[in-house]
């Protein structure tokens, strides 16, 4: 737990520099077997650790919520002078000249950055099998033949596997924090859109992307959220709403709180073992004094997948247009006209899934198709938000499984069509489209494979999710 770690660091029981050496050594050993990191940043980590150690010795030091705490970072988030590629070959060699806002905030809070983690290329995937640049898919910490989930797979895998106190910065567009957290048996907290600055994030889809914590416990996730939340004048979608002491809600009683269990999230397509486990958790919350009611909320589940993939691919196709082999990253010898050059660079250096999404998104926004696809998807999104808001006006949170399936084997993923892979995001795309905060909590296992329960709250109600999530976590 972060709070316990900091207390020991300040008392001298834990030497931050020595501790950093140990986790770096462990990270290298784990990485050889499981493939969680794109880079392990020894020099930066030790530099951060020495600074944190000096800070810990000061009698009247400013409160640092992450003092000496090891932090890993998804490869789509910029760290100054550290190669940042979103696991795409087209950005090979790109080293940002600035830190993302979330990195600046973590450093101000005393964090020790130990490395960048593997993901699907630009976030395009739910199993971390689409990593470019020659990276292999990270392996599930419970079974190396299975997926960690995606796209923040490296974040979640290492968070589970390391024996040390550790938190990670993930990013979600359609489920990329909650799903890998579920598959790896850790906590994934995706905040309200705008709650955390996106400045310094390599965009997938601007109206959907959200940076959030992956941690070993709800309280640790809440501590990290408290460190990174807040307004940022550099980012136009950043909310002016003040950040809260989110960690203070962990452990609070849930008596009197009301939960809506979404009927359509159970039944056909959902593993029966997952369904049984989720209901055990619901009954445990009921014993803690929280009431529940089953409700129907079919619209987001029925239309979430097509709306999400149209909207996200449309935005991705425009965002990726800047990767053309001219400004940074991979380039080739300039031959022929510019269109021919751009085509060659992008054909050689973008992966199959990236190309698929570019083509889908470009098609959806072409003249003659824009109204039929993109505009219609925007209308569906607006209706989804209204449906969620209506339900959340009566309840503190909505409850579903995080994923309808247990972590799949890589051999099984290979047999799935792209559409079948997309459909496995059916329970996470809705809250992401609506910009709603949600949290995945490990609530048990089946045959040693973890199961996650997802709670979704109203905009800027992360406090309720932390309160309920903590109670659910403690009831296990």
Shape: globular
Q: Write down the CATH topology of the domain at 2-249.
A: Amidase signature (AS) enzymes
Low-pLDDT residue spans: none
Q: Which structural class do the helices and strands define?
A: alpha/beta
Number of strands: 13
Give the second-level CATH assignment, the architecture of the domain at 2-249.
Alpha-Beta Complex
What's the overall average pLDDT, rounded? 96
Radius of gyration: 21 Å
Give the strand content. Answer: 5-15%
What's the SSE pattern? HHEHEHEEEHEHEEHEHEHHHHEHHHEEH
**What's the CATH H-level superfamily name of the domain at 2-249?**
Amidase signature (AS) domain
What percentage of residues falls in helices of 4 or more residues?
Answer: 40-55%
Instruction: Report strand order across the widest sheet.
Output: 1-3-2-6-8-7-12-13-11-9-10
Largest sheet: 11 strands, mixed
Termini separation: 17 Å
CATH class of the domain at 2-249: Alpha Beta
The total of helices stands at 16
């Amino acid at each position: 737990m972060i709070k316990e770690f900091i207390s020991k660091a300040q008392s001298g029981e834990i030497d931050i520099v020595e501790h950093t050496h140990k986790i770096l050594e462990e990270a290298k050993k784990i990485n050889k077997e499981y493939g969680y990191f794109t880079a392990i940043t020894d020099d930066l980590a030790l530099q951060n650790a020495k600074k944190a150690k000096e800070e810990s010795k000061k009698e009247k030091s400013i409160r640092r919520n992450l003092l000496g705490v090891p932090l890993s970072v998804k490869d789509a988030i910029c760290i100054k002078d550290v190669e940042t590629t979103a696991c795409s070959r087209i950005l090979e060699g790109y080293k940002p000249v600035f830190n993302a806002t979330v990195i600046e905030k973590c450093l101000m809070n005393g964090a020790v950055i130990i490395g960048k983690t593997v993901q699907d290329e630009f976030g395009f995937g739910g199993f971390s099998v689409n990593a470019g640049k020659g990276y292999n898919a990270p392996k599930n910490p419970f079974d190396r033949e299975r997926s960690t989930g995606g796209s923040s797979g490296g974040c979640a895998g290492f968070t589970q596997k390391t024996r040390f106190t550790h938190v990670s910065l993930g990013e979600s567009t359609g489920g990329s924090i909650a799903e890998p957290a579920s598959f790896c048996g850790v906590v994934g907290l995706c905040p309200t859109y705008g709650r955390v600055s996106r400045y310094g994030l390599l965009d997938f889809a601007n109206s959907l992307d959200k940076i959030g914590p992956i941690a070993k416990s709800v309280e640790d996730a809440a501590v990290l959220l408290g460190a990174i939340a807040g307004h940022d004048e550099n980012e136009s979608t950043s909310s002016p709403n003040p950040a809260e002491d989110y960690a203070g809600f962990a452990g609070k009683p849930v008596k009197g709180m009301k939960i809506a269990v979404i009927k359509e999230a159970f039944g056909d397509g959902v593993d029966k073992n997952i369904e049984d486990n989720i209901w055990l958790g619901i009954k445990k919350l009921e014993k803690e004094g929280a009431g529940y009611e089953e409700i129907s909320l079919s619209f987001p589940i029925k239309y979430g997948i097509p709306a999400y993939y149209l909207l996200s691919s449309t935005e991705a196709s425009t965002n990726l247009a800047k990767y053309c082999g001219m400004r940074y990253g991979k380039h080739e010898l300039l031959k022929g006209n510019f269109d021919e050059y751009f085509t060659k660079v992008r054909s050689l250096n973008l992966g199959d899934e990236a190309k698929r999404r570019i083509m889908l998104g470009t098609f959806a926004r072409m003249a003659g198709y824009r109204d039929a696809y993109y505009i219609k998807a925007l209308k569906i999104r607006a209706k989804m938000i209204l449906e969620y808001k209506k339900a959340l006006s009566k309840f503190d949170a909505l409850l579903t499984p995080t994923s309808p399936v247990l972590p799949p084997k890589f051999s099984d993923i290979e047999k799935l069509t792209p559409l079948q892979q997309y459909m496995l995001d059916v329970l996470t795309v809705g809250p992401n489209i609506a910009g709603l905060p949600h949290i995945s909590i490990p609530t048990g296992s089946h045959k040693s494979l973890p199961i996650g329960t997802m709670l979704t709250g109203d905009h800027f109600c992360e406090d309720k999710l932390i309160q309920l999530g903590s109670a659910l976590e403690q009831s296990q």
